[in-house]
Design brief:
By secondary structure, this protein is α+β, with helices and mostly antiparallel strands. 37% of the residues lie in helices and 20% in strands. It has a five-stranded mixed β-sheet, covered by helices on one side.
Amino acid sequence: MELVELGKVFKISSGGTPSRRKTEYYKDGNIPWVKTGDLKPKYINKAIDYITEEGLNNSSAKLFPKETVLIAMYGATIGATSILEIEASTNQACAAFLPTDKCTPLYLYYFFKGNQTEIIRMGVGGAQPNISAGLLKRVKIPLPPLETQKRIAAILDEADKLRQLNQQLIQKYDALTQSLFLDMFGDPVTNPKGWEKVKFNEVGKLDRGKSKHRPRNAPELLGGKYPLIQTGDIANSGGYITEYKSTYSEIGLAQSRMWESGTLCITIAANIAKTGILTFDACFPDSVVGFLPNEKTNAVFTQFWISFLQKILEDSAPESAQKNINLSILRDLDFLNPPIHLQTQFAERVQLIEAQKAQAQTALQKSDALFNSLLQKAFKGAL
């Protein structure tokens, strides 16, 4: 398959940012102004920010037509890509590939998706790499006839839709459990049903994790058979901690503590008040609090109760090098304490929903694998 430099196929441009000191460049603007952080959906048909005609005409910003393909050249979303469904301007961090009769927008979009890692590696710089329009012009793309491009894009689109359906199903299961909690118990912050409240430390045992030494300063602590959980593992667990990336050795375990399966883990640093229930015995550092419920509650009910307080706790956390809360703050929280039989009933219903969610997550993993496989084949002439 013929490989052609993008600069020989597309006119590539970038946008600009009107002066922030000029309110007339933004106030009551009607021209969509897209930033790199907006490059999340496949298609962009609206913007968060808008600029005025005056802002457009008195800056390096440009108005790009529909079907322009955008890619983030630097920043937190470097390599992210979207297709414009509207006329829009962009900031200078977006590279814009204007429509051409040689390549379909959707084909280019999937090319960028399939080669995102390689494109990011091209970036120059250290902690914040950036890609220039000049570098992008030299990227080579396989360029079959338009009808073949459309066929390849259609195959990838169907696989992508399957992924999205599975993602949406998981989101619906999450929304269902939140709705179930509110139906049964009301908002725990305002307590409209008037449930009894007790201090959090009255319904179980709260203790910080233990690690006398930082593993990065003592490699002999790592590499054994004892699972080690970090704050990021909890924040990304989806509610249940089912995997781990690090392990302690016998030496590591000796200066730490093993927590039993079923412990509710609560982060108190970096990620504030994020939670996950252990599905295996594990250690964790003192940036995590372990909660073991007594006869007055259970881990599932407690987890959902905390989820409604998470934003409040995060916003109120003092910040030094990083945000954190302490154990005494958790212990002194007012815990919503409805009758235990209702809490148990809630936990049982959640378990049923979680079982369905697990099936959807398995389906998502399979659809992700299919999509990524097709994406790799698509630009090697194998589709």
